[in-house]
Automatic annotation (TrEMBL):
Residues annotated as domain Bypass of forespore C C-terminal: 62-124
Source organism, top-level taxon: Bacteria
Pfam families per UniProt: BofC_C (PF08955)
Region of interest (Disordered), residue spans: 31-61
Protein name, as recorded: Bypass of forespore C C-terminal domain-containing protein
Classification of source organism: Bacteria, Bacillati, Bacillota, Clostridia, Lachnospirales
Species assigned in the record: Candidatus Pullilachnospira gallistercoris
InterPro entries: BofC_C
Compositional bias (Basic and acidic residues): 33-45
Length: 127
């Protein structure tokens, strides 16, 4: 009878421990949405000059549809992705706080080929 109680207590402790691990994992899961709260991207405009060639012009063989685009919405930058311009993220970067050269690039259709370049830009321009 005593062994039965010990086994029940042991199993109950294992269940509590497992539930604790699950809760910790859920609470510490990376929040992709908070990382994406950055910038909307604007549609590419072909033939526009003054854009940063490294981040805005497609390279040979590059699929233009798989790009991140910055767009100004309600005075803030937002990010869109792909050919259908699917919403990607909001940012807290105010358009009027950017320097003139950056504003012109955004008006001309600033875009990025990968997340790393996008996040580097957003990091450099967030307050």
């Amino acid at each position: 009878m005593m062994n039965k109680k010990r086994i029940c207590i042991f199993l109950a402790l294992i269940l509590v421990f497992a539930a604790g691990i699950i809760l910790v994992r859920l609470a510490s899961a990376p929040e992709e949405d908070s990382q994406k709260e950055m910038v909307l991207i604007r549609e590419d405009r072909e033939g526009e000059e003054g854009e940063d060639a490294a981040s805005t012009l497609p390279t040979s063989g590059e699929n233009r549809e798989q790009r991140y685009y910055l767009v100004v919405e309600d005075g803030y930058l937002s990010v869109y992705y792909g050919a259908d311009r699917t919403f990607y993220a909001y940012t807290d970067i105010r358009y009027d706080m950017l320097d003139e050269a950056t504003r012109q690039q955004i008006q001309q259709g600033l875009s990025f080929t990968d997340e790393r370049t996008l996040y580097d830009f957003l990091e450099n321009h967030s307050s």
